[in-house]
Amino acid sequence: MNHIIKEEDIFLFTDGQGNIPVNSPCGYGLFYRDTRFLHHFSWELSDIPMISLCSKAAGAESEYRYTNKEVMRGDSLILYSLILWRESLELVHRRRIFEGVVYETFHFVNLDQRAVNTRLKLTVGADFTDMFIIRGFSTGKRGEEPDCQVLDSGLRFSYKGLDGRERKTEIVFDSQPSAIRQNGSVEIPLSLHPGEKRDIGFKIIPYLDKKPQVLDQTEAQTRLWTSYRAWMEKMPQLESDHPDFNAMFQTGLHDFRMLLTDVGNGKLPVAGLPWFAVPFGRDSLIASLQSLFIDPELGKATIRTMMQKQGTRLDPWKDEEPGKILHEIRYGELTETNQVPFSPYYGSVDATPLFLILIHEIYRFTGDLSFVRECAESAKKAFAWIDEYGDPDNRGYTSYACKSAKGIRNQGWKDSENSIVHTDGTLAEAPIALVEVQGYVYWAKKAWARLFEQLGESSLARRLERDANHLQKRFLRDFWMPQEEYMALALDKDRRQVGAIASNAGHLLMSGILDEAKAGSVARRLLQQDLFSGWGIRTLSAEHPAYNPMSYHNGSVWPHDNSLILLGLVEWNMTEALSLLLDGLIAASAHFPERRLPELFCGYERSGGSLIPYPVACSPQAWAAGTAFVMLRAMLGLKPDAVQKKIVLTPSLPASINRLNANRLRIGEGELDVSLYKSGDTVYTAVKRNTTGWDVIIG
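== Amylo-alpha-1,6-glucosidase ==
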C-alpha cells in the first residue's frame, strides 16, 4: 500500500510505512511544482529492531505506530542476556504538511523498567528530478549535479536547473543532532528512563525562490486542523440508511479539501494524485461541475484560472490556438526549458465547451449574473475557437488533430493511444469529431444564447441559438447508427462513423442534443450487459474486439464517466436506470478503503465475484470524489433554475436506500435542507429549511 498526503501544491508520496526507498519503481518522493524535492527518506534505531503496528494517511497528515522486537546480547547461545523486552518501546511517527513545510515528529515512550539508550538514524536525499522523467513520459537535459551542505542544525540540498532556477530542500531539526553528514545521514542520541517520553522533531522545507515561514510544530497542527474543520463545517451534510453511501460522500468531501490548490485565482480542484496535482482543463472543470451545490466558489476559481491562461496565439508546439482552454499546466524544469510543451499545453478538444458549460451552470445554481458578465468576453473568444479552429476542415463538428511533436494524440477524455477504435479494431485517424464533444458544444451554445439575451446581446444570442439547432439536426443524422439504435463514438478524418459502442454517448443525455426517442434508446443501451458491468457502465462494450476489462479506456469503469451519465438520466427522469446505476456505484465503493471510488476500476462482471481494482489508478482523484456529490444530486432530482428563481426536485431513491437527509445544499442566496423517505414505490419529500430565496417545486 502507498500513502499520499497533500496540502496546496506540495504532496508526499511514500510507501505504506512513510518511507521513500531509493530507486523505487513507484516514483516515491516529496513533490513541489512538478519536481521531486526528496527522493530518499528512511530511518532506524541503533541495535533495536522495530515492527509496524499500524499506519494511516489522510489529507495532509500521516501517522505510523511501531514497537520493538526483543533485544538480546551475548557471546554464545548460553550466555545471551535480555537487553530490552519486546513491545516495551513505543514509537509514533507523525507528519503533516502546512503552508509549504513538512512537519515531522518521532514520539518515543519507554514502557520498560530499565533505561533505553539508542540513536535515531535518518537518511535523506534530494535528486530534484522532473515529474515527466519520473513518470517515464519524457527524457530530458538537466542542470548541475545536486549539492548537499551541512548546516548547524540540519542539511540543505540544492540544485541549479537548466532553467537557471535554484531549487532547495532544507531539513532543520528542533534540537541539535550529534552527527550530520554530507551524504544525507543524521544521528540523534536517544536516552529514555523508565516511563520517560521524548519527541524528536524536524522540518522538511522545499522551496524555489522564497523560503516559506516555518512555524512551531503545535501551531502548524492547530492551524491545519482549524482549516479542515472550517471546510467541513460549511459543507453539506448527508445522512442516509446506507452507511456505504454516507462514507463515500464524507470521503469525497475530505478528498476535495485535500485536492484544492490556489494558483492565484482562489482554490480549485486539481486532477488527482500522485501524478496530476496540477490544474487540468477537463478534470478541474468537470470536478467543479460536480460540486456546484458543495461550493460554487470552487467553480469560479476554476473559471478564472482558465480565463487567465486562455489561448492567445497559434503555437503548434503547445497545440495552442486563440480562445482555446488549456488541457494541463506544469511547472518543472523540462517545462520551463521548453523540452515539453506544458506551460500550459492546450491539447484538449472538450475543455473549451466544458468551460462555457460550467459558467452557465454556476449561474444556474447561484443566479450570479455579475459573474457571467465577468466571463462574457472570454466566452466570446471560446466560441470563436469552436467555430474557427475547432472545426479545421469545415465539417460542422468540433474536432481535434494533434500538432505538437510531444503532444497528446487523442484529445478527448479518453486520451490513450488506442481509445478511439473502429469496430474492426483499427484506430481512427484525425481529425476526429467525438460524439460527446458535439453534445457539449450544443449545450454551450443553447445555454449562452439565454445568457447573452440576459446580457442584452440579442443578435449574438440568436446566432448561437440558430447554430445550435443546425448542429443538432446534422448531428442526429451523421452520428446515429440505426441498426445499433445508438450514437457512433466519433467521426474520423474521412467522416466515417467510428461505430464502437462506448460510454461517451451517455454524456449526450445531459446536453439536450438528443430527441426523446433517441435519448430513450441510448439510456437502454447503456444498461445492457455488454456495457453495464453491474458495478458501473464500461468505457467500451464487452462485445467490441478491442474490449479489455483491464485496459485504461477500452473496457474499464470510470466513476466520473458514470456521474455525467447520471446527470443526463436525471434530466430525462429515467428513474429505473438511475436506481440501477446508483446501486452499482454504491456497491463498488464498498470494495475500497473509506469507500473512496478511485479514478477507475476494471470492467469485469459483478456476477463474476469481487470487484477488480485497476492497479495504478490515481486515488484520490477529484472527479472520482465528485461522483458522490452527483449521486446525491441524482437522488434528489435537483434542477435549479436561476431565471425563474426556483428549485425543482424530482426525487428517486435507489433500491438500497429508503431514507436520506441532505442539509446545507448551497443554492441561490443560501442553503437548502431536504429529507427523502421511501414507502413502497413512492418517495416522499420534505423541505426542512430553505434560505435560498428561491421557491422549491416537488415534481
